[in-house]
């Protein structure tokens, strides 16, 4: 079985000091590779395409994505991972499991809310420590199964023009969302230079959401299952425009509705035209409700 993929490329590492200006790709962390299935560890020996970058995206307006969060998780060994996330309530952020568990669960962390430029402590930013991390009990790191987690904040977020919760589908929502326009957002890389840092400012791009059958046909692997949702890679726009753990959203009744959580992209590069993979939010609504204080619509 040949599976060529990378985690959404904008998941980056920085020193335990929390200096956001010195981010690295997660592929450079030994402990990340050690947890993968042996069939996937071969990817470390492959030449990683320089096209893993943010392409054909645009800079967001300040406050355009008030639900966007930065998730900074600190791990053993003086490493930390920079990811995306979404504001669910004043007390909880939604992200990917691999953003808060790499070998071991993050020892501590911080969510940055309301940021437009992550390198600046803007007046509308809120930087809140983790109180606890809740990882799906069936998360399988080797194959990115059930790649979902929630973070309880140590202090409640204060909602404003720049910090707002995202909507989630109703429990009764059985749509696949295929054919709808999906929008990804985050602080992804903007340069094809090896080791280049993540974007300072929030970027976004849009493409159609695929059927799972079409996504499976493109991947030709067992990676895409019912628990996943995929975004077309047409025009070189893909999940690497948003950090791992960040949102895939559609617009409904003038509001953003989160349907996916960024999980993986293809190893040939984000600009290759291959679909990017997300966790399907509707598959986990009951688990999200049990591990947050969000009130779901029936």
Automatic annotation (TrEMBL):
Residues 54-293 form the Peptidase S1 domain. The keyword Disulfide bond applies. Pfam families: Trypsin. Residues 1-16 form the signal peptide. InterPro entries: Peptidase_S1_PA, Peptidase_S1_PA_chymotrypsin, Peptidase_S1A, Trypsin_dom, TRYPSIN_HIS, TRYPSIN_SER. GO terms for biological process: proteolysis. One of its GO terms (molecular function) is serine-type endopeptidase activity. The keyword Ion transport does not apply. Keywords: Disulfide bond, Hydrolase, Protease, Serine protease, Signal. Belongs to the peptidase S1 family. CLIP subfamily. This is Chymotrypsin BI. It comes from Culex quinquefasciatus. The lineage of its organism: Eukaryota, Metazoa, Ecdysozoa, Arthropoda, Hexapoda. The gene is 6032830.
């Amino acid at each position: 079985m040949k599976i060529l993929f990378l985690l959404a490329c904008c998941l980056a590492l920085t020193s335990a000091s929390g200096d956001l200006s010195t981010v690295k790709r997660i592929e450079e962390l030994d402990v990340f590779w050690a947890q993968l299935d042996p069939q996937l560890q071969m990817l470390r020996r492959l030449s990683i395409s320089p096209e893993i970058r943010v392409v054909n995206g645009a800079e967001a307006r300040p406050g355009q994505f008030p639900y966007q969060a930065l998730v900074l998780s600190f791990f053993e060994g003086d490493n930390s991972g920079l990811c995306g996330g979404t504001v669910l309530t004043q007390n909880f952020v939604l992200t990917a499991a691999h953003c808060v568990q790499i070998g071991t669960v993050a020892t501590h962390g911080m969510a940055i809310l309301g940021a437009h430029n992550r390198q600046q402590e803007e007046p509308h930013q809120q930087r809140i420590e983790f109180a606890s991390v809740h990882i799906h009990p069936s998360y399988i790191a080797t194959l990115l199964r059930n790649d979902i987690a929630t973070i309880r904040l140590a202090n409640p977020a204060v909602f404003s023009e720049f910090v707002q919760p995202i909507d989630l589908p109703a429990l009764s929502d059985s749509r696949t969302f295929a054919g709808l326009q999906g929008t990804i957002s985050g602080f992804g890389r903007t340069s094809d230079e090896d080791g280049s840092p993540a974007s300072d400012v929030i970027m976004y791009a849009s493409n159609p959401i695929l059927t799972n059958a079409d996504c499976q046909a493109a991947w030709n692997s067992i990676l895409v299952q019912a628990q996943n949702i995929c975004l077309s890679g047409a025009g070189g726009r893909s999940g690497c425009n948003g950090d791992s753990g960040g949102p895939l959203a559609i617009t409904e009744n003038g509001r953003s509705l989160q349907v996916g959580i960024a999980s993986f992209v293809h190893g040939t590069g984000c600009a290759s035209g291959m679909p990017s993979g997300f966790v399907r939010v509707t598959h986990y609504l009951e688990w999200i409700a049990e591990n947050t204080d969000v009130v779901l619509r029936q």
